[in-house]
Amino acid sequence: MHRILAKQALSPNVTRLDVSAPRIAEIRQPGQFVIVHLAEGSERIPLTIADSNPAAGTISLVIQAVGKSTNELVALNPGDAICDIAGPLGHATEMISAGHALCIGGGVGTAVVHPIAQGLSRRGVRVTSVIGGRSKEWVIFEPELKRFGQVVVCTDDGSYGRKGFVTDAARDILAAEKVDIVYAVGPVPMMRAVANLTRERGVRTIVSLNPVMIDGTGMCGGCRVTLGNETKFACVDGPEFDGHLVNFDELQDRLATYREFEQQATACAADHCRLQKQIAAQK
Amino acid sequence: MSPRLTTKARLQLTRQAMPEQDAAARSANFLEVNLGLPEKLALLEADRCLQCKDPRCIKGCPVGVHIPKFLDLLTAGKIAEAAQSLLDDNALPAVTGRVCPQETQCEAECVRAGKGLPVGVGYLERFVADWAREHRDQLPQTTPQPTGRRVAIVGSGPAGLTAAGQLARRGHAVTIYEALHKPGGVLVYGIPEFRLPKKIVAQEVERLREAGVKIECNVVIGRTYTIPELQQKFDAIFIANGAGLPVFMNVPGENLKGVYSANEYLTRINLMAAYQFPRSDTPVLHGRRVAVVGGGNVAMDAVRTAKRLGAQEAVIVYRRTHDELPARAEEVHHAEQEGIRFEFLTAPLAVVGNDKRWVTGMKCQKMQLGEPDSSGRRRPEPIPGSEFIFDCDVVVVAIGTKANPLLTATCPDLKLNKWGNIVADENGQTSLPGVFAGGDIVRGAATVILAMGDGKRAAAAIDEYLRQAGK
């Protein structure tokens, strides 16, 4: 059992949970993830470790509530517990040890960029972060990333920072300054756009992929992604890959496999919730 | 030997049939197919054993169960003693009584198999093991003297559980590390409920816990801890982390939506209970016409599962013929009864899909059998110009697995073969002192009982190693 020790709403549908997991907190490295299994009957879902506090024995999970499983996780409160957390899984982020890194985070992906920027900063690498959201309240991890260097904030509606996509800001930075490596984590279209941008300029680009996954140890092969002509398993070979080789179209398509099931599960959960309220009201 | 019947009388007894759920009914549910022999029939069947002076059945058993002994105790009415005898030899008899390929092991060696039908050893093992599960209070509880030695076991599948049981009864302190959230390995994620109910695995695991074995789930060796780290904390290690990565066909279209590895398909349904969706949260694509590529036990499990999920047609696509199917005979027979179609001498060339990238079929080629290859089986050869489209909306690839690199990549001193499997001798000894290995991570891909045999032999070798080290 893994107790929730702290909870914080970061944006309208993104929540940060600090969860007890001492061994993982002690050894996790930037880029690694855990598999979370809330309770008997729950899905196993992969979540990147956004931060950790080895002294307190906690890891931070940043969860975007999009379906039944993630909604159940963000409904947890301090004192509640998660049955199973396995990890840390996946490879650590490939890091440079000197130079200038551009870290690009879109939406909840910004939480995944955080440990990467942290790791780079600790190595003495200059870090520039570009982060974005739909509007001001969707921008997360700005204060944390500011500790590691300059942060450029973009919002789609211009309600905060620069108006436009993170790729627009990234394009300007790439044109103005020497960038040795780019890390990009966010929605698939964003990562694809960044990869296209940096490919022209020949700047190495690492992306973190979030395909459908069950065991997270290489056993099921559900998380397979195509890199160039090769099939890779995101759990054991990734989750970070060379963004210039990733077949993003296939990734996006495979992520849609269970869309109908997700809608059904969400609808069933909502109906169950409604009926429970009615029963409670009758009493 | 039980004096009640003469050999002549025993020879006159005919083999009892295993009662089973009706094929039409069971192909729509996940309840167990075989129902188990009732006591009366079990005793009759046990009387068929001729109590040979040189019982070859024992040699046919990978864990060396003293078959005539437990059958003799059974016929003498000493069922608790029969159960104890069986459990002394085999840590998981309720499992092996259900999933062992007896027809190629103990029953193939039975003297009665030469003329007529062998003794139903598997049925009787199941009978005695199920009795033991229900009457645990009637079995003697022995608490061994603790040796103070600590053994880590990686993986809680058949090899790991067997080794744990054997080591615990010798007084060693055993900790099993399991990567998934539930113990049992392939017994819980791979083998379906209708062949091996999860309750039975849970009971076997519980029995080990009561014997003092500690099981820590959600620990991935190679990630959470490495073998060198375990070596600091334990006196010996047994690695039985299983087969690992699924092998795909490496044909175009394999990443279309609707293509599964058998591991993923079965894990979704068995471990994650996707057949109960939306009561459980993990979904699985059902498919109207499901094609399972392969001819082994895993392929049979997958295709029979697809049928139970409501597929109008569930088909085995296999490049050889019925005679070469590597699956256990009973599984093939049950599959046939349940209306599974077999597309023999057929090899997929590509998976094809629609404009939304959902699977719509496989491009296949007809094969013919040529000369025997190195495995002794006749090699399938393509028939030119025989390509055709096989319609289906779900494809399950059940053609094997390869070694998982997570553990071995973080233990560079461990010697591997060219396929990445751990090199170990017949006692499971690896290139590292005190580190033993067995099951699929050594063998590639084998059966539950062979993995259990590895676990049993490795446990004996570990015990021996710990004694010598203790001098």
Describe the structure.
The complex is a heterodimer of chains A (283) and B (471). The two termini of chain A are 33 Å apart. Chain A is globular, with a radius of gyration of 19 Å. Chain A is an alpha/beta fold and 283 residues long. Chain A has nine helices and 16 strands. Chain B has 471 residues and is an alpha/beta fold. Chain B folds into three domains: 7-138, Fumarate Reductase Iron-sulfur Protein, Chain B, domain 2 (Orthogonal Bundle); 150-244 and 403-470, FAD/NAD(P)-binding domain, CATH 3.50.50; 247-401, 3-Layer(bba) Sandwich (FAD/NAD(P)-binding domain). Chain B contains 19 helices and 16 strands. In chain B, the strands form four sheets. A five-stranded parallel beta sheet of chain B has the order 3-2-1-4-16, sandwiched between helices. In chain B, strands 6-14-7-8-9 form a five-stranded parallel beta sheet. In chain B, strands 10, 11, 12 and 13 form a four-stranded antiparallel beta sheet that branches. In chain B, strand 7 (289-293), helix 15 and strand 8 (313-317) form a beta-alpha-beta unit. The mean pLDDT of chain B is 93. Classes of the chains: A alpha/beta (283), B alpha/beta (471). Chains A and B meet through helix 1, strand 7, helix 8 and helix 9 of A and strand 5 and helix 14 of B.
